[in-house]
Specification:
Blueprint lengths: L2 H42 L1 H22 L3 E9 L4 H17 L2 H5 L12 E6 L5 H14 L6 H14 L4 E7 L2 H15 L3 H41 L7 E3 L5 E3 H24 L4 E6 L3 E2 L8 H31 L1
Antiparallel strand pairs: 1-3, 1-6, 1-7, 2-3, 4-5
Length: about 325
């Protein structure tokens, strides 16, 4: 009697395994039949599909020459005098005028709206920091802690900060004709720099900077005279220790501090000259690029998009026709 339950359990396991293998076999058979039906469907419509692909490819290739390839030109600029917000606003305004085809606005700049087919302008930050990049930089800064306050680390940190806090912007122009596009891009940059408010500010800034340079030069000349007199005095008399000379009014002259002041004035003058060179306009053009073709992925090109569209429409039409046939069969049944 004890053998019967065991034999029944074995038979039950065999039935369950048999059912499982049968289900797997049915699944493979169904999948095979589905692939077979798909193969037969493609075989029946092979000529139509091939024709659609060839015609679509030829049409996309022809449109490439009829419409023309899109080109772009990138201009890297640096806003001056806190003109970043103005720069973004004026670019948005120009793009709105392009969409509206404002003939009066563009005629004032010597631009023909009829030649601006496909013309558009965009602006973006030259460098953007993503989330993953920020995490990497935090780890990088953590590693720098181990090196304490060395001069090399200070240079690295200064370089990184300048790189991340850059004000440089990228203005991108899109157009069809390279010659007209480059000419009109230059006109737009000139228009951005023609703002009267920032032009007046730059004049005041330039005047102040030039006066600052003149005062620095005058102070440096006076310091040189003092140092020269001190040197001559040392040659005639024995100077006191610690580099100090007691003048007739009994006031000491600190020569090291004079040298330090002179160096600071020289650095300030150099900085002002660089700023004058950079801030000649509302925005400084760092690099005015050359027109070049826009490189698009294959799936965005007409030679690929049009054939895929034709094939997709054919499959959609076939599916609708299949649903319509099934609906009629249900109504007949």
């Amino acid at each position: 009697m004890s053998d019967n339950p065991t034999s029944n359990q074995n038979q039950s396991d065999e039935i369950d395994l048999g059912q499982l293998f049968a289900m797997i076999g049915n699944g493979f058979n169904s999948l095979f039949r589905w692939f077979l039906n798909l193969f037969l469907y493609l075989k029946r419509n092979l000529v139509i599909l091939a024709t659609l692909v060839v015609v679509g490819g030829a049409l996309g290739f022809a449109l490439k020459f009829i419409v023309g390839e899109e080109q772009k030109l990138e201009v890297i600029v640096t806003p001056n005098l806190d003109t970043k917000n103005y720069l973004y606003d004026v670019v948005d305004e120009i793009q709105s005028d392009i969409k509206a085809k404002d003939t009066v606005f563009f005629s004032s700049m010597g631009m023909d709206v009829d030649k601006m087919d496909g013309f558009k302008v965009e602006i973006s930050q030259l460098k953007s920091q993503g989330g993953s990049g920020l995490e990497d930089e935090m780890k990088f800064l953590e590693l720098l802690k181990d090196f304490e306050n060395s001069e090399a680390i200070s240079d690295i940190l200064r370089s990184e900060l300048q790189d991340k806090t850059t004000k440089d912007q990228r203005i991108t122009f899109y157009f069809k004709d390279a010659i007209t596009g480059k000419e009109y891009a230059q006109k737009i940059i000139d228009y951005i720099n023609s703002n009267s408010y920032y032009t007046d500010l730059l004049k005041v800034y330039t005047e102040n900077a030039q006066n600052r340079i003149q005062r620095n030069d005058s102070l440096i000349a006076q310091i040189d005279i003092l140092i020269n007199n001190y040197t001559q005095k040392m040659l005639k008399e024995q100077a006191t220790t610690e580099g100090r000379l007691v003048l007739e009014n009994q006031e000491p002259l600190n020569i090291p501090s004079l040298f330090s002041l002179k160096n600071n004035l020289i650095h300030d003058t150099e900085s002002k000259k660089l700023e004058l060179e950079r801030r000649q306009e509302a925005i400084t053009v760092v690099n005015f690029g050359q027109p070049h073709k826009v490189q698009k992925p294959l799936f965005q090109k007409n030679i690929a998009v049009i054939p895929l569209t034709f094939v997709g429409l054919f499959f959609l039409f076939s599916f609708i026709r299949y649903l319509n046939r099934k609906a009629k069969e249900m109504q007949a049944g």
